[in-house]
Design a protein that fits this description.
By secondary structure, the chain is an all-alpha fold. It has one domain. 82% of the residues lie in helices and 0% in strands.
C-alpha cells in the first residue's frame, strides 16, 4: 500500500502544520495573534501543537509500520484510481491554501473585522448596562440572601 502511505504521510504532515500546507498558515496566525495580545497564553497552544506532532508520528508509525497478520494483508488493497484522484484534489487545495493564503483570507478579513467590532461594541454595551443595573442586582442579591439565611 505505498500509494495510501504516501497520501497518509502528506495529510499527517499537513495536520502538524508543516510549512507550505494550509494548517501552517492557521497556526501561524494563531500564534502571532496570541503573542501580540496575551503572551502567557502562547504556551498552551504550543504545547497542544507539540502533543499533536508526537501523537501523529506515533499514529503513522503504528498504522503503516505496525504488525499485521498475513491473513489481514490479503484483504487490504492499495488505493484505486478514483480514490487517488479525489485525494490529489485535496492535496492541491491544501498546497494552494498553504502557499497563497490571501485567496481565502481576503474574503473573510473584512467579515472578521466587522464581527470583532460588533463584539467589542456588545461588550461595551454590556459593561454599561451592568454598571447601571449594579445597584439593582445588588439589591436583588441581598434580598435573596436575606430570604435564604433568614436575615432580618
Amino acid at each position: 500500500m505505498p500509494l495510501f502511505s504516501a497520501f497518509l504521510f502528506f495529510f499527517i504532515i499537513s495536520n502538524v502544520a508543516f510549512p507550505g500546507t494550509s494548517n501552517f498558515i492557521g497556526e501561524l496566525l494563531l500564534f502571532f495573534g496570541l503573542i501580540t495580545k496575551i503572551k502567557i497564553m502562547f504556551f498552551i497552544p504550543f504545547l497542544g501543537a507539540f502533543l499533536c506532532l508526537a501523537y501523529t508520528i506515533l499514529f503513522f508509525n503504528r498504522i503503516i509500520f505496525g504488525t499485521l497478520k498475513v491473513y489481514h494483508n490479503i484483504k487490504f488493497m492499495d488505493l484505486t484510481f478514483l480514490e487517488a484522484f479525489a485525494l490529489v484534489i485535496f492535496i492541491i487545495c491544501n498546497i494552494i491554501l498553504g502557499l497563497v493564503p490571501n485567496i481565502f483570507i481576503s474574503f473573510i478579513s473584512i467579515d472578521i473585522i466587522t464581527l470583532l467590532s460588533e463584539f467589542e461594541l456588545k461588550l461595551y454595551m454590556q459593561d454599561l448596562y451592568s454598571m447601571v443595573n449594579m445597584q439593582q442586582n445588588l439589591g436583588v442579591l441581598v434580598s435573596f440572601l436575606r430570604q435564604y439565611f433568614f436575615i432580618n
